[in-house]
Each structure stands twice: as C-alpha cells, then as structure tokens.
Amino acid sequence: MTTVNTKYAVDLSNEGVSLWCRGKKSTWKLLGKVALDAPDFSSQIEALKNGHSSDKNEGFTAQVRIPASEVFVSEIDLMGAKGAVLAKRIKSFLEENTPYKYDDLVFDHVDKSGDGKAYIAAVTKQTISEAKEFITAYGFDAQYYTTKLEKADFPRIPKFYDGDKPSVEETTPPILAPPPKASTPPAPSAEPEICLLYTSPSPRDS
Questions:
Q1: Which of 22, 34, 98, 189 could form a disulfide with 44 if both were Cys (CB 3.0 to 4.6 A apart)?
Q2: Regarding beta strands 72-77 and 60-65, do their DSSP bridges make them parallel or antiparallel, or are they unpaired?
Q3: Residues 66-109: pLDDT tens digits?
Q4: How far apart are CA 174 and CA 61, in angstroms?
Q5: Cβ contacts of residue 74 below 8 Å, gap of 6+?
Q6: Is 206 helix (H, G, I), strand (E, B) or coil?
Q7: Residue 51, Cβ neighbours under 10 Å: how many?
Q8: Maximum CA extent, the chain
C-alpha cells in the first residue's frame, strides 16, 4: 500500500496554526498563519481554509504536523526479526525507553541499510486524538499525522495514523508490525505539551 503525496499541510504549534501548500518540486509554501490568541481565531481559520479549497463545503484533507517535542525518536536493533517476534521486540523497546505502555503509542519505523537496525518514531495516541479533535472542529481532515525531524534521526517524515492503517512510505517501505490491541490503558499522568494547543477558541516531509 502506498500513500499519495498530500497537497496541503496543517502545522500545529503552541503559538498558532499554519497552512502550507506543496508547490513545484515538492517544495512547501506558507499560505498563512493564525495565532492561537487571535480574537477572531475561528473566522481567520475559516477564511484561510476556504480561500484555498475548491469547495468550502468539502473536507480539507492535509497532513497534520504536530510539534517534534511530542515525538519519541530513536534507533532500534531488530536483528532481522519478523512477525510476532518483531512486534514483541518493538513493544519491549518502547516500554523500556518511554514512560508509556505500548498500547498507548502509535509508531512508525524504517529499516537502515543491511545492519538489522531501524529508525523508530512514536507518539502517544492521546496526542493524536487531541490533534484530530482540534483540526476536525475547524473543518480539516488528516490524511496522516507527522512532524519535522532531522534526516539523521529519521530518513523521511514519519507517518502516524489514528486507526489501524499502517505507515507506508512510497520510496522506503518499512517492515510492518501487527496493529496495537484495541484496548488502551489510561495514559500516564504527565500530559503531552500539545495540550496547550487546545486552549484556543472553540468552534515529517516527503
């Protein structure tokens, strides 16, 4: 399975929301930004979105960028593991290196060349859920969630989904682990920093 390049990107930060458009040669152009403390935040978001949509009543699909501070990034030695062994190895690694349970996380990973190791990036389901709730309230649809990372840490943009859809990059297909279990234990008491994003008025790159 491959994913089509998104034309738009919604960049979420603790300061505001930015809308980007993919231009020639896959370069990104900033279309506009709205500060979270803007008194007319909702109307500015609507004007920005509708000004670049072919149909204002149609869902505005984009990749949604969350702050890199919300994403755990590391390197994992998979040692050629596959199937259930691969899933177990990733689960153990994430639970040993983050304060979260495996079932509380969404992850993406990419194999390194020939040494049995891989790059791995993970984010809490709570963060994805909050981002989804926020963008949906303003008429955006997420094709996937991502963030900006250094290529030395992750060779492409990570792709996180809010369902069981696997993360697949067109040019570098990773080994796919089985989807997480349906049940999700309560998240740790520490709230992700992105929570600050949702105090606004109510209504990675390839």
A1: 34
A2: unpaired
A3: 999 999 999 999 888 888 999 999 999 999 999 999 999 999 99
A4: 24
A5: 93, 97, 119, 120
A6: coil
A7: 11
A8: 54
The sign of the CA dihedral 67, 192, 144, 91 is positive
pLDDT in tens, 133-159: 999 999 899 999 999 999 999 999 999
* Residue 157, both tokens: 């943009």
Residue with tokens 């606004």: 200
Pairing of strands 8-12, 60-65: parallel
One-character DSSP codes across 117-180: EEEEEEEEHHHHHHHHHHHHHTTEEEEEEE----TTT-SS---B-SSSPPP--SSSPPPPPPPP
